[in-house]
Amino acid sequence: MEWPVIRQLRSRDSTGRAAAVTSKKTRETSPRTGDADTVVQSVCPFCAVGCGQKVYAKDNRVIHIEGDPDSPISRGRLCPKGAASEQLVNSAGRQTKVLYRAPRARDWEEMDLDRALDMIADRFIESRRRHWEDTDEHGNPVHRTMGFASLGGATIDNEENYLIKKLFSAAGAVQIENQARI
């Protein structure tokens, strides 16, 4: 056991601000990202700002997420939510399967993703067909449907919101809104 004062006197660290005062534990400490086998750039999922993230993974499991200093938007900074986004991926409560609850049913059942997407598409098309309006009550052409609407979230970026707006507009929806505007 060697005290820092003795190390300071034996070394050339006369001011005691360098290696002489560094503990053995500190010398043996390594970055928690040092053993990652993959580092990918990503975008924070929490809001529409689009802060850059570096996602570190080991054995196909996310081990750490930090701000990306190369991002022109956030320059390596993340808000508390963005800094904690690793919990989204590794949370024990995260749903990883599609769940479906039939009308008037009490329990949820697991469903295949392809089947769920087919059900959504079928309902979307049927609602559009059933509620389509070529003209309004005065005979003016409107080419719209009032059978569905879109409410986008602030957790998707501008490009995704743009594509959703185009999709619903092309389908004839009139009520297209975004959480960020409300």
CATH architecture of the largest domain: 2-Layer Sandwich
Rounded mean pLDDT is 87
Low-confidence stretches: none
Q: What is the CATH fold-level name of the largest domain?
A: Phosphorylase Kinase, domain 1
Number of domains: 4
Structural class: alpha+beta
Could you give a short account of the major beta sheet? 3 strands, antiparallel
What sequence of helices (H) and strands (E) makes up the elements? HHEEEHHEEHEEEHE
Describe the secondary structure blueprint for this structure:
Elements: H1 4-10, H2 24-28, E1 38-43, E2 52-58, E3 61-67, H3 80-83, H4 86-90, E4 98-100, E5 109-111, H5 113-130, E6 132-135, E7 141-145, E8 150-152, H6 158-171, E9 176-178
Parallel strand pairs: 8-9
Antiparallel strand pairs: 1-2, 2-3, 4-5, 6-7
What are the salient characteristics of this protein?
single chain; 182 residues; alpha+beta; Phosphorylase Kinase, domain 1; 4 domains; 3-stranded antiparallel sheet; two-stranded antiparallel ribbon; 6 helices; 9 strands; elongated
Give an account of the 3D structure.
With about 180 residues, this protein is α+β, with helices and mostly antiparallel strands. It has 4 domains: about 1-30, no CATH class; about 40-90, Phosphorylase Kinase, domain 1 (2-Layer Sandwich), CATH 3.30.200; about 95-130, no CATH class; about 130-180, no CATH class. The protein is built from 6 helices and 9 strands; from the N terminus they run H-H-E-E-E-H-H-E-E-H-E-E-E-H-E. It has helices at about 5-10, 25-30, 80-85, 85-90, 115-130, 160-170; strands at about 40-45, 50-60, 60-65, 100, 110, 130-135, 140-145, 150, 175-180. A hairpin with an 8-residue loop joins strand 4 (about 100) and strand 5.
